[in-house]
Structure formats: C-alpha cells, structure tokens
RNA sequence: GACCCCAUCGUCUAGUCAGGUCCAGGACAUCAGGUUUUCAUCCUGAGAACAGGGGUUCGAAUCCCCUUGGGGUCGCCA
C-alpha cells in the first residue's frame, strides 16, 4: 500500500449489458466519494465467468455511466476516461497475477485442492436442505491422504481450490455504514477460490485486485455484506491491508421486492409460463435451446433486444430497471443522478435538488442511511418536471431534439427544423419528460384524412352540448379562419379573441376547445395557437371541415 | 432452515452516534380550494409516522433487551 491516505474507490461490475439503477447508485457513491476527497475512481470489469461470455454488448454500461456524467480515472478506455497504471482492468487478463497468489496460499497450507464434482455437491446440499440443516462443505478433500491427492492429480481430475477457513476465530468486519458485524467461528465453510477451469472466483479476484489496485474504500450494495467476512479472511491470509467497507442498502421496487436486473426476465418468464407458450415466438430471434434454458433457469437473462421484442409480442410493458430505460423514458441524466443520490443519502442542509458538482462537494459516508429504499417513480418524475421547467428554452429544444433523433425519429422526419423547434417550445411548459410531447403529439403525425374523433365525454361536452354547441361555433368560425392569410400565433390570438366576443360572450374556452378537438382528435393539445401554427393552415382547416362532416357520428341524434 | 442486516407519515427522508429545544421537520404522492383556452403547471390549505412490549433515566424517536415485520446471503454467479 503506497499511500494509505489517498482515497481510491472502484466500481466493479460484471459485463452483463446495461447498468441498472442499483449499480448506478453504487457507482455514483464511489465516484462522489473519490471526488469529494480528491481521490481516484476506478472501474474494473469482473469477467471471471467464462460461461457468461462477455462480448461488446456486455460493456454497454460504460455508455450509461458516461450518460450519467460519471467519469472514471482508471479502467477500460472509453472516450476520455480510463487507462491507468494498475491494470489490466479486466480480470480475465489478470490470470497470471492470481496464480502467483494461489501458490502462496497453497504453500502456506491456507488453501487446498478439492475434487468433489458440482453434481456431488448439489446432491449434498439438497439432502441438507431436506433435513432442514445448513449445508457446509465437509472438508472431505482436506483429509485426503497425500498419495490419493497425487494420484488424482496424475489422473488429471478436475478440481477446485478451497480456502481453509480458520475454525477457531470470530470474524469481525468493520463497516462504515453498519458498524461492527461479527460472525461466530464455524459459520463459514471452506469456500472455493479457484474454479476447475483455473479462473479465480469472485471472492479471490476481488481481494487480490482491490489490494493490488490500492483500493482504499469499498462502497457496494448490501448483498455483498455476507461475502465480506470471506474477503477479510483472504486479506489476512495474503498479508493485505483491509480496505474500509461501506455497505449501502438495497433499492426495492414499490412492491417491496428487490429491484433487480433480472426483473424483466422474471416478469416475462412468469407470463410465458402462465400462457403456456413453449416455443420462442417468431420474430423475437430467440433460439429453441436458449428459450428452454431461459425458462428453466431463473439466473439466465435474455439479451436486451430479445427481451424487448418478446415483451412487444406479449404486449407487456417492461419495468424501468436499467439506466438506459430511464433515458429512453425521457428522463434527464442529471435528474436521475440527483434522485439516485437521494436514495440512501441526504446532504446536511436538507436540500433535495442539486447537481453533480454539489454531490461531489458534499457527499460523505457518514450520512448514508442503513435502511433500504423503495424506488419512487413519482418523485423522480416530479424532479424531472422541475428541471425541465427551469431549463433555458434553447437548451430544452436542442436536448429534446437530440433525444427524439435517438428514440422518436419520426418527429424529426415529419417536421422541418423550424416547425420542430416550435413543437418543442410549445411543449416545454407542460411536459414532465421528453416522452410526454411524443406520447400526446401523435395527432401531428397522422394524415388529415385519417384523423378520428373518439366519442368520449369531454369531446361530446365541448362539441355537442349547449346552445349554441361547439359544432355550431365551429361552423361559424370556419369561414373566418379560412380568410386568415397571416397564419401566426399573434394573428390567431387576436382572431380568436374576436371570435370569442362574437360567438361566446368573450369566453375563450368555448371557441378554443372545439377547435382543439377538431384538429387534434381529442381534448388535449399544446396551447391552441401553437397547435394551429405547427399543424399549418391547410391541415387545420381540413381537419375542422372533416370534423364538421362527422358531426352526426360524434353527436348521435337525441 | 441457518447466519447476517434493517425498522420515523403511503414513499424518500431530517432528527438517533454526543437523550430534553420534536404533542416529530421537509420533499414526493393524496385530498380540498384557487389561477389557467385543454392537459400539464402554478398558488393556498388539510390529513398523514416514531412497528409492539419491556427496561435504563427526572426525561427516550433517540440507549439496552425481547417480540413482530421486512430484506440479504447461504453457487466451481458476481
């Protein structure tokens, strides 16, 4: 340990695609802590599982981190982030480093070879479970005669390396958030540190890497709490210093279950089973084999594109779990970051809305809460609204345009640049997320000749009821609107004021609402003059005409 | 089942470590009014919590114990 006073934190995900919000918060806390204390934040890829192959898609979370504005000083290179002296930062490239440390443990007798097969162990676990007993590895291989071991080795029997847990001492973990956690002697079994394929297990790799990368503070989710005792033991056996630990509570769904990256699979799997679908629906691109094993094994996740396609065919709405889901749903990265920071942490001054710089200036471990938090989308949405409202108009337009290009290019294609601009501005005051204008603006995209008017209460109220009715007023207004040459917000505004005087005793709503419905097909749209201008004179007139033509369907006689 | 962690309004939390200033504060949500050309905003107001039981103490949301509830882990996953 070169200089123990320098703060070094790390985020160490496995390369399984997108970053989920729990991971994002861990990364945020690590990052903020390093920034607050003038330290370094590193990223390390925990890819020691050969079965879950790590292709390029596995590294999608790098984009998610970057989107959130979390940058790393060392780790995989991405844009201007990454690099560093303590690499490689992919565990699969550090195998020779681990073997050196395995050797030390074998020589000192702190680790031993074990020859049981996974099947044997599974069987033993099952029996123990059936007898309502806690299963612990029985150390059978530890008691094997040297001769037998040599014989097995000569035969080339596959084997793992297990760590010999001292059975006479209590293990104490000091946690910055939780305090002191004690584990009685004998609670821990001799856990595996090297798999049969020669790769280290998570426990071993994490300890070696944290030590070699001089990580000073391990900030991670509480699901790792039970592992920490193993790590502490390994550190002692290897002669490493213990980093400071801070275990952050988990993030839950509103229903109280753990918010997991596997939730989407879980939801779909349940639905598939319920409907008795036993082969992969066509168009999802899922192979028969993959489908079968996915159905059987809860720990298997489908690639995200297949997940999306499957959800579409089943007409199921997937929960927002990944950072990318929130991006797609139209949230601002700075708002998500803000909200995530509030999940388990709060600044001393009680402020709730702040930016990344504020977090970096104020974050500390002593204000982290121990209890778990439920993810509250309403609050996130409210924060998003606030951020959208205070955003400058130009910034809003350009960010909204960028987002549309990515997620709803049909709007960019449909409008020319200045009309898109107007569309964006007209929506700014009234949207909670980038998705709102898109969801409510579908009528802009439909053909004038195919616009329909659903016969729902607010429509009938505005169009059919009263004397004169909305339709009567529309009829009277149409010729006036036809005569307008200067189809602009200001001209329309003065025209409508006159129309309101002439036909509705000055009540603007009485003239605006029928027009709104006529041109949008429903009772909701951006401010009426903006809507008329964005749509254009020709379309607006045509839609009013067609609405009038449909009077009898919309207001059935009686 | 074993072990470990947690427990303040519906939700996120402040207050807990250094007991009194807390008949518990804020935010989101809810409800009621008001503003508004629709929706969304915006403004005003209201209701809403220390899980239960024992201690310790002059005094407990704060300290201790038990119960209950929730969660995590128990993989040759990370």
CA-based gyration radius: 31 Å
Care to count the β-strands?
A: 13
Report strand order across the widest sheet: 5-6-9
Distance between the termini: 87 Å
Fold and architecture overview:
There is one protein chain. It contains 26 helices and 13 strands. Helix 1 links the parallel strand 1 (8-11) and strand 2 (40-43). Helix 21 (470-482) crosses helix 23 (508-520), helix 21 (470-482) packs antiparallel against helix 25 (537-549) and helix 23 runs parallel beside helix 24. The relative contact order is 0.08. The model has no long low-confidence stretch (mean pLDDT 91). With 558 residues, the protein is mainly α. Among the domains are: 263-312; 445-554, Orthogonal Bundle (Arc Repressor Mutant, subunit A), CATH 1.10.10.350. A 3-stranded antiparallel sheet has the order 5-6-9. A two-stranded parallel sheet has the order 1-2. Strands 3-4 form a two-stranded antiparallel ribbon. The protein binds one RNA strand of 78 nucleotides through helix 4, strand 8, helix 6, helix 7 and strand 13.
Layout of helices and strands:
Layout: E1 8-11, H1 21-36, E2 40-43, H2 61-68, E3 75-78, E4 81-83, H3 95-107, E5 111-114, H4 118-130, H5 146-155, E6 160-163, E7 171-175, E8 179-183, E9 192-194, H6 202-212, E10 217-221, H7 225-238, E11 244-248, E12 251-252, H8 263-275, H9 288-296, H10 304-314, H11 323-328, H12 333-342, H13 356-362, E13 373-374, H14 377-390, H15 393-407, H16 409-414, H17 417-428, H18 435-440, H19 442-445, H20 457-463, H21 470-482, H22 489-504, H23 508-520, H24 528-535, H25 537-549, H26 551-554
Parallel strand pairs: 1-2, 10-11, 12-13
Antiparallel strand pairs: 3-4, 5-6, 6-9, 7-8
Helix pairs in contact: 1-13, 6-7, 8-10, 15-17, 21-22, 21-23, 21-25, 22-23, 22-24, 23-24, 23-25
The structure holds one RNA strand of 78 nucleotides.
């Amino acid at each position: 340990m070169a200089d123990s006073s320098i703060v070094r934190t790390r985020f160490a995900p496995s390369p399984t695609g997108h970053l989920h919000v729990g991971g994002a918060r861990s990364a945020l806390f690590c990052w903020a802590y390093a920034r607050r204390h003038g330290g370094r934040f590193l990223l390390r890829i925990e890819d020691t599982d050969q079965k879950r192959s790590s292709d390029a898609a596995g590294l999608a979370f790098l984009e998610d981190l970057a989107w959130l504005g979390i940058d790393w000083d060392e780790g995989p290179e991405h844009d201007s982030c990454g690099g560093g002296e303590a690499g490689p930062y992919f565990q699969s490239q550090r195998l020779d480093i681990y073997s050196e440390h395995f050797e030390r443990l074998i020589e000192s007798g702190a680790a031993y070879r074990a020859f049981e097969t996974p099947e044997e162990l599974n069987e033993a676990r099952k029996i123990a479970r059936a007898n309502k007993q806690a299963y612990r590895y029985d150390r059978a291989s530890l008691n094997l005669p040297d001769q037998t071991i040599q014989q097995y080795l000569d035969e080339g029997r596959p084997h793992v390396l297990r760590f010999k847990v001292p059975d006479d001492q209590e293990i104490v973990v000091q946690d910055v958030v939780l305090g002191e956690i004690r584990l009685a002697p004998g609670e821990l079994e001799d856990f595996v540190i090297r798999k049969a394929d020669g790769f280290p297990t998570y426990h071993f790799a994490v300890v070696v890497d944290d030590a070699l990368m001089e990580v000073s503070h391990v900030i991670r989710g509480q699901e790792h709490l039970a592992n920490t005792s193993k790590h502490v033991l390994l550190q002692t056996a290897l002669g490493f210093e213990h980093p400071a630990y801070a275990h952050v509570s988990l993030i839950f769904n509103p229903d109280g279950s753990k918010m997991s990256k596997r939730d989407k699979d879980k939801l779909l799997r349940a639905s598939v089973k319920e409907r008795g679908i036993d082969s992969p629906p066509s168009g999802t691109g899922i192979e028969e084999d993959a489908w079968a094993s996915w159905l059987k094994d809860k720990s298997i996740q489908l690639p995200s594109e297949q997940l999306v396609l499957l959800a579409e065919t089943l007409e199921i709405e997937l929960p927002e779990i990944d950072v990318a889901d929130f991006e797609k749903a139209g949230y601002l990265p700075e708002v998500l970051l803000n909200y995530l920071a509030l999940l388990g942490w709060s600044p001393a001054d009680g402020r709730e809305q702040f930016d990344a710089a504020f977090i970096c200036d104020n974050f500390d471990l002593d204000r982290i809460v121990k209890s778990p938090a439920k993810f509250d989308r309403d609050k996130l949405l409210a924060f998003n609204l606030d951020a959208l409202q205070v955003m400058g108009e130009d910034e809003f337009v350009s960010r909204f345009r960028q987002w549309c290009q990515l997620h709803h290019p049909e709007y960019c294609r449909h409008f020319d640049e200045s009309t898109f601009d107007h569309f964006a501005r007209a929506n700014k005051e009234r949207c909670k997320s980038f998705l709102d204008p898109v969801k409510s603006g579908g009528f802009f995209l439909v053909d004038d000749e195919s616009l329909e008017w659903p016969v729902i209460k607010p429509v009938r109220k505005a169009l059919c009821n009263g004397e004169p009715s909305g339709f009567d007023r529309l009829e009277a207004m149409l010729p006036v609107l036809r005569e307008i040459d200067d189809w602009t917000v200001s001209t329309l505004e003065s025209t409508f004021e006159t129309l309101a005087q002439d036909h509705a005793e000055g009540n603007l709503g009485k003239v605006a609402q029928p027009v709104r419905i006529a041109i949008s097909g429903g009772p909701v749209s951006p401010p009426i003059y903006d809507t008329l201008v964005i749509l254009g004179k020709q379309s607006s007139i045509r839609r009013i005409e067609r609405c009038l033509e449909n009077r009898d369907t919309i207001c059935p006689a009686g």
